[in-house]
Known about the structure:
The complex is a heterodimer.
Chain A: H1 7-24, E1 31-33, E2 40-42, H2 43-48, H3 64-71, E3 78-79, H4 98-109, E4 115-122, E5 125-132, H5 143-159, E6 163-169, H6 177-181, H7 183-196, E7 201-209, E8 223-226, H8 237-244, H9 255-260, E9 266-267, H10 270-284, H11 296-302
Parallel strand pairs in A: 5-6, 6-7, 7-8, 8-9
Antiparallel strand pairs in A: 1-2, 3-4, 4-5
Helix pairs in contact in A: 5-7
Chain B: H1 9-24, H2 31-53, H3 57-64, H4 72-79, E1 80-85, E2 98-105, E3 108-115, H5 121-126, H6 134-149, E4 154-160, H7 167-171, H8 174-187, E5 192-201, H9 202-209, E6 213-217, E7 221-223, H10 227-235, H11 241-248, H12 252-257, E8 263-265, H13 276-294, H14 299-312
Parallel strand pairs in B: 3-4, 4-5, 5-6, 5-7, 6-8
Antiparallel strand pairs in B: 1-2, 2-3
Helix pairs in contact in B: 1-2, 4-13, 6-8, 8-9, 10-11
Amino acid sequence: MDNHPMNWISNVVRPKIRGFLNRREVPENLWIKCPETGQLVFYKDVEANQFVIPGSNYHMRMSATARLKSMFDGETWFDVGVPAVPVDPLKFRDARRYTDRLKDARTKTGLTDAVKLGYGKLEGLPVVIGAQEFDFMGGSLGMAAGEAIIAGIETAIDKQTPFVLFVSSGGARMQEGILSLMQMPRTTVAVQRLREAKKPYIVVLTNPTTGGVTASYAMLGDVHLAEPGALIGFAGPRVIEQTIRERLPDGFQKAEYLKAHGMVDMVMHRHELKPTIARLCRLLTKQPAPEPPANLPAVASSDEPDEPVPPPEPVA
Amino acid sequence: MRSYLDFEKPVAELEAKIEELRALEKPDGAVEIGEEIGRLEAKADEALKGLYAALTPWNKTQVARHPQRPHCLDYVGGLIADFTPLAGDRKFGEDEAIVGGFGRFRGESVCVIGQEKGSSTESRIKRNFGMAMPEGYRKAVRLMELADRFEVPVLCLVDTAGAYPGIGAEERGQAEAIARSTAACLDLRVPNVSVVIGEGGSGGAIAIATANKVLMLEHAIYSVISPEGAASILWRDSGKAQEAATNMKITADDLLKLGVIDDIVREPVGGAHRDWAAVINATGDAIAKAFDELRELGPEAVRQHRRDKFLAIGRTLA
């Protein structure tokens, strides 16, 4: 482990991740039920399988942290900081106070808001990856999440890396009213800057992606990947049913349907995402294909100085 | 026949009374009735002024949706000479919920894009009540690109409950169409001004409301979701729409304070529907002022101005 090429990152980030994971640890004997087939499976097996149910291949929701772990080499990365935003600018209260909902979401997820960012290596390529946490108020897009997307893209431009974003969101954070709507043009400005910097923007649409999020940065990727069965749309199915007073066709707004209608490039198993994203990034940035796996030990020990970019530094 | 909103009842009663008296009035004129009418008119004016000085956010929602409020094409008719509508997205179809074309605003060429709600049963159906399909947003993108190429400024008139939520709309990529339209606004190298003339409903509005200058009529509303939608999602009770309207901060005054809009166009007493000519002229003056303020900016500067402006939103709030 000490010889691991990413050790310098491990040292920085690991304690934090460890602490975070321990808090969410699920008892070992816990069984869960596949939402599709009803089959009972051992939680540990599901976790070890990147939260895909082994028998049915049902893709469960994945936390933002688990997502970053599944993507970054050695499961390590630098957290990318996000500027602070005004809290509860509208002093909003519905059935509950918005500040109370925020507090709960923070306790539940261990995150400050709905987007987590990391900077590290993906099959050796430096990348910035963002992941939206659905458990944080439905992954909703408020000022903090908007700033996080912008910060992620700015970091990618700064470090000259691709930006990969795992989207999972019910849409706008209604408790922030118009200021959440403003995140649509704001994040779009960032996407345009990334384009001008000629860095790839890969969007992975996961279950579910709807509303203002779909209608802004989630649909502006250079390449759109989607996980099987993910619900992806502008209006939610319930709203559409209420509007047209008809039952919706089977498979409507599912990832496969989006692909058939030209909105998504590939629908793929979660296990395929990492190699595919790495390949796409290499192809789009004209990087050579990776060394064959047999050479890996040699790469780990001697190729480090040949890294095309200088070692990343922690982002405050 | 004027239609009244529920909170306008005191005015409705006075004005009904005035109508009754007018009917009684003979051509040779009994002086007492004339005086009585004058007295009642003054009272009705006073009542109207009082009501409109203290509109709640929910009242404004009602005024913004008033069936007799001037709509997009009424502003086009009043402000744009030589208006030449263009149609179609060149990909799938023509969406009449979004009107677009070129014309002259106070002598100068302008590209006009706006949602039209319609004003009769027939036209409302034709316009799908101002709720656009992806084709509408793709037409907007097409026109913006055209305007950009010919260096013609863009004026958008925003008035929609939201983009249409339907099977066909989803099938053809409503979300993508909205995202591209917002991006097209941000990419313009010519000045653009958007005016929220009635309802600015969510993503369907922002798709054409991402402008160097965003103006809003005094009693228009602009929000991330309709008060009814927020009530049913957040309160799980659609009866809480009034509370949602208040808490969401959807009025022009609130949005000016939040730095989301740049200017408010005052409406005549009793709302835009009481005096079309006055509100359309006032809107024209505000649009002219907004374009004037952008006149000095070159193509790159005007685009940078828009980007900086949106990036700054929210960053300076306490």
